[in-house]
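Annotated sample (chain length 124).
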Amino acid sequence: MKVARARVAVVDDDESVRESLPELLKEMGYAVRAYASAREFLAPGEVERCDCLILDVAMPGMSGPDLQRELGRLGHAVPIIFITAQSDQSIRSVLLQHGAVECLFKPFSDQQLQSALAAALPGV
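Output written by the structure step:
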């Protein structure tokens, strides 16, 4: 169990992910907020409440990579762990080249998630 209460945001258009993933993250000791869209996450004050972002790649409207670019444009350097149902290694490579900490393919294990969070939040 983590001692620190790092704040993790989950942005995914899939309601089942927004319900299950935050529960798992809370069990791991994180404070969690879930968002149904990139636009919802970009609401005033939300980005500043986040130490790490778990972000779906494919979402309607603004995609995960689009949100990553927008955060960069706005000067927010939040560590990003992408999650995707598309098991395409080339997508993973591109996302990592653009600064993502990790890209996990759904379904991923608790251990894979813990390892990605440890890389995104060193020292926590």
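Annotation: The mean pLDDT is 93.
Annotation: Residues 7-120 form a domain with the Rossmann fold fold (CATH 3.40.50.2300).
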